[in-house]
Design a protein that fits this description.
Largest sheet: 8 strands, mixed
Number of strands: 10
Strand order of the largest sheet: 2-1-3-4-5-6-7-9
Number of helices: 14
Helix content: 25-40%
Distance between the termini: 54 Å
Length: 365
């Protein structure tokens, strides 16, 4: 089979994803893909579009599609890209699809955005991704984007193509916070589709119950991606509404039921100093940590905006996240959130106390 493995990603042939960076996410091959413009295709329009056809042609012929620049950027920097991560388990498995035309293909991997409904108000999240964060940003006078709605289109696509679907990716908000997600899981189990589907769920691990776990065990494979940013009270500070004891109890329940658990931190100015402790905690419990996400928005919480007086405390493994020039002071935003929640970051992270109460001259832009 002739295609260029250095530029090919299997996702355009198998995946129906959404760009989650707007209030009205558009169909895309993956969540990182960025077209110059994002037309609001219907599923059929997108699946047979000139845009998707061009992406496939370029990849096969050794051309790097411009909308995939984030992966090319990572690969040029020596980092493992999403393209490379996805290709490892799936390219060879599905490479027979690469020469097929659009009419012969059906989506076998679907992402379902379970709306922005969420039970937490994570400090590094955005207003259109969490309903709770939307309310917080309104309260502190920060500009908001309308929270995105439940993705009925993708749910219908899953139901209509359930026999051929092999992978489902559930994200929120908090997927397990939405009743339709539970009903969809029930339907897949009751109609004998779960046994050929691998389901991925990105969750804060606060909302698990025995019935849900029993249903999840019916799927061919389950990967629970637990969002953890620090250990104990530090994590609770970063994600208001979280309860560390509940999270640990639920992780233990998942493992006891032989469901795969992966830990995924979001690297921000708030938690970059906490990462070594989190890594040690994962290693002690033999929990795998997947590729860390990086906060880009809100911009204040990008690690590059960590106060200068704290930068020497960053573990050498994470110094590269400080390589970009500062763009804005993170302390003002952190203090606004602290005022809203009646908290102080240094109560759980004492190293912040001096810089919090008196900014150094090095923190000016």
């Amino acid at each position: 089979m002739t295609y260029n493995k250095n530029t090919t990603c299997i996702l355009p042939w198998i995946s129906l994803d959404r760009n989650g960076d707007t209030s009205e996410p558009a169909f895309a091959p993956c969540c990182l893909y960025q077209a110059q413009d994002k037309p609001k295709y219907t599923f059929e329009e997108y699946w047979h579009s000139k845009e998707l056809t061009k992406i496939k042609e370029e990849m096969r012929n050794g051309i790097k599609p411009s909308g995939c620049w984030k992966c090319w950027h990572d690969e040029d920097a020596g980092k493992k890209s999403m393209r490379q991560s996805v290709n490892e388990p799936r390219l060879q498995l599905h490479e027979n699809l690469i020469q097929k035309n659009n009419k012969e293909l059906k989506p076998i991997q679907v992402k379902l955005l379970a709306s922005a409904s969420c039970n937490l108000a994570c400090r590094m999240c955005q207003s259109h991704i969490s309903s709770k964060v939307f309310k917080v940003w309104e309260a502190i006078g920060r500009a908001t984007k309308e929270p995105y709605k439940y993705d009925y289109d993708s749910e219908n696509i899953i139901r209509e193509n359930a026999e051929s679907i092999r992978y489902i990716d559930l994200i929120g908000g908090e997927p397990f916070y939405h009743k339709r997600v539970h009903r969809l899981i029930d339907w897949l189990v009751e109609n004998n589709h779960a046994n050929h589907i691998t389901i991925y769920v990105t969750t804060n691990a606060m909302l698990l119950n025995d019935g849900l776990i029993k249903n999840l065990k019916q799927f061919e494979n389950v990967v629970i991606i637990v969002s953890l940013d620090a250990v104990g009270k530090k994590h609770e500070y970063i994600r208001p509404g979280a309860n560390w004891d509940t999270i640990i109890k639920n992780i233990d329940r998942l493992i006891a039921n032989k469901l795969n658990v992966i830990i995924q931190p979001v690297i921000s100015a708030i938690n970059i100093l906490c990462l070594p402790e989190l890594i040690d905690w994962c290693q002690q419990r033999k929990l795998h940590m997947t590729q860390m996400c990086l906060v880009h928005n809100p911009d204040e919480l990008h690690p590059k905006n960590l106060p200068s007086a704290l930068r020497h405390l960053v573990d050498p493994r994470f110094q590269s996240f400080l390589s970009e020039d500062k763009t804005i002071d993170c302390l003002e935003f952190i203090k606004k959130l602290d005022k809203h929640w009646n908290t102080k970051i240094y109560d759980v992270m004492p190293e912040w106390k001096e810089v919090y109460n008196k900014k150094s001259k090095g923190d000016t832009l």
